[in-house]
Amino acid sequence: MRQARHPEVGEMALTEVMAALSDPIRVGLVRLLSDGRERGWGELRAPVAKSTLSHHLRVLRDAGLTRTRQEGTRCFVELRSGDLDARFPGLLAAVLGAAEQEDVGHQVGLAASPAGQRR
Questions:
Q1: If you compute the radius of gyration of the chain from its CA atoms, what whole number of angstroms results?
Q2: Which of 11, 24, 38, 116 has the highest CB neighbour number within 10 Å of its CB?
Q3: What is the distance between the alpha carbons of residues 90 and 84, in angstroms, rounded to a whole number?
């Protein structure tokens, strides 16, 4: 599989970042990933088809919000918090605060653990 391209910090454009954050599913993904942990795509749950979830993850990656890496057949994603703060100081915190307050993206979560509990 071809390695995904990630924009360098200086290449991140505010309009692209804001456009990527204009969808509640993508905001939910950012909220979920804001804990700093890398997640496998299979762990992510949203009320959309897998192909649509893949599209949302690609939009976030292309805007520079996330970094994706391939390991064998598995794909992992993480939020680029440090890079976002370096390029747009305070933006991520403001978006996360507003999203929390308005409960935007609440429908995005993690797959149930093997014991049947949410992580």
A1: 14
A2: 24
A3: 9
pLDDT at 3: 61
In 8-112, at which residue ranges do the beta strands (DSSP E only) sit? 39-40, 44-45, 66-71, 74-79, 109-110
Confidence (pTM): 0.90
Burial string for 63-100 (b: 16+ CB within 10 Å, else e) reads bbbbbbeeeeeebbbebbbebbeebbeeebeebbeebe
The pair of three-digit structure tokens given for residue 113, joined into one six-digit string: 């653990």
DSSP structural state of residue 113? P
Q: Measuring CA to CA, how many Å separate 14 from each of 67, 70, 91?
A: 17, 27, 10
For residue 66, give both structure tokens: 């996330």
**Mean pLDDT score of the chain, rounded to an integer?**
92
Contact 97, 78 (CB under 8 A): no
Question: With the C-alpha atoms ordered 38, 64, 28, 81, is the resulting torsion angle positive or negative?
Answer: positive
